[in-house]
Amino acid sequence: MRTKTIYFATKALIVNAGKFLAVHKSNVNYDLYELPGGRLEFGETPEETLKREIREELNIKVNPIKLFDTWTFISDDYQIVGVIYLCTIKEGKITLSEEHDKYQWLPLEKESSQYMHKVFNEKMCNWDFDNIIK
Fold this sequence. Notes:
single chain; 134 residues; mainly beta; Nucleoside Triphosphate Pyrophosphohydrolase; 2 helices; 6 strands; globular; NUDIX_hydrolase_dom; hydrolase activity
């Protein structure tokens, strides 16, 4: 039996003025968005991973406010288990890396989940959007 790989990843729910940042991967043929972030590298803490990935993908620094939620993605060959941090932008202007081809600031409301990849859509349907930032 072939061993299947499990990865750990972090994602950022970056909020600003009643909206959140959603990014679109450049190597996919569907028009759904996801939250920015990526996989843990050996020796990193989840928060260090978050900050590095956001810097690499968006060229900004974030201020993680709190650990917000968890998520899981399972494919035929691998699984990703991750956490979502609620964040604000600390400094910088968004410049996308080659990994993403566009981004949007979507309203911080349940209806925005329809634009998100199923992994995040399913999680967002259970979020209390009225109390995300208090």
